[in-house]
């Protein structure tokens, strides 16, 4: 429904990875790395499963991209991610020298590509990234809100069940 290779087209692909995160009981955030109109890497949140606070979607995708291109610089790549990167991931993107970042929903709590700070276009850092934000933002944020709503309901139901048993 979106033109092939458009930002929306690729964001749909990132959203599919967010669904995989959710299937693992993780916060649904997904990312892909695109080079020459091909997906060369993907990632989704795995922090809970892997007991690893660094296992964010962007981190997983960038690590995989590096292995794929056999280079730690991602000069001609674009990272698509459903949620604005945190400070750790935004810092990682600067280190990777990635050309473009495209994200969906803004993150007012930890977003470091413009919301609470901007590491992606910091004039004192040695690399600035071309950032496009808000691509399919409503779909991306709705997925997150639905997840948290469901999780709150599950916690509430579990508490109720525990009370009933005692
Ligand atoms: Zn992150």
Structure description:
By secondary structure, the protein is an alpha/beta fold. Strands 2-1-3-4-5 form a five-stranded mixed β-sheet. The chain is built from five helices and five strands, in the order αββααβαββα. The longest helix has 29 residues. It is 44% helix and 17% strand. Bound molecules: zinc ion.
Distinct small molecules bound, one entry per kind:
zinc ion
Largest sheet: 5 strands, mixed
Order of helices and strands: HEEHHEHEEH
Radius of gyration: 17 Å
Counting copies of identical and different chains, the oligomeric state is single chain
Q: What is the helix fraction of residues, given as a range?
A: 40-55%
Count every helix, treating DSSP H or I runs of 4 or more residues as helices.
5
């Amino acid at each position: 429904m979106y033109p092939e290779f458009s930002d929306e087209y690729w964001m749909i692909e990132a959203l599919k990875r967010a669904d995989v995160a959710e299937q693992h009981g993780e916060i649904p955030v997904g990312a892909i790395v695109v080079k020459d109109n091909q997906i060369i890497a993907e990632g989704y949140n795995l922090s809970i499963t892997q007991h690893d606070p660094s296992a964010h979607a962007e981190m997983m995708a960038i690590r995989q991209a590096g292995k794929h291109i056999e280079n730690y610089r991602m000069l001609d790549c674009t990272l698509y991610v459903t949620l604005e990167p945190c400070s750790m991931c935004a810092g990682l993107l600067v280190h990777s020298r990635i050309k473009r970042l495209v994200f969906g929903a803004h993150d007012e709590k930890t977003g470091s590509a413009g919301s609470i700070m901007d590491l992606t276009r910091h004039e004192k850092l040695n690399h600035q990234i071309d950032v496009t934000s808000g691509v399919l933002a409503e779909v991306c944020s709705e997925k997150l809100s639905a997840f948290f709503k469901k999780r709150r309901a599950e916690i509430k139901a579990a508490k109720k069940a525990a009370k009933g048993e005692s």
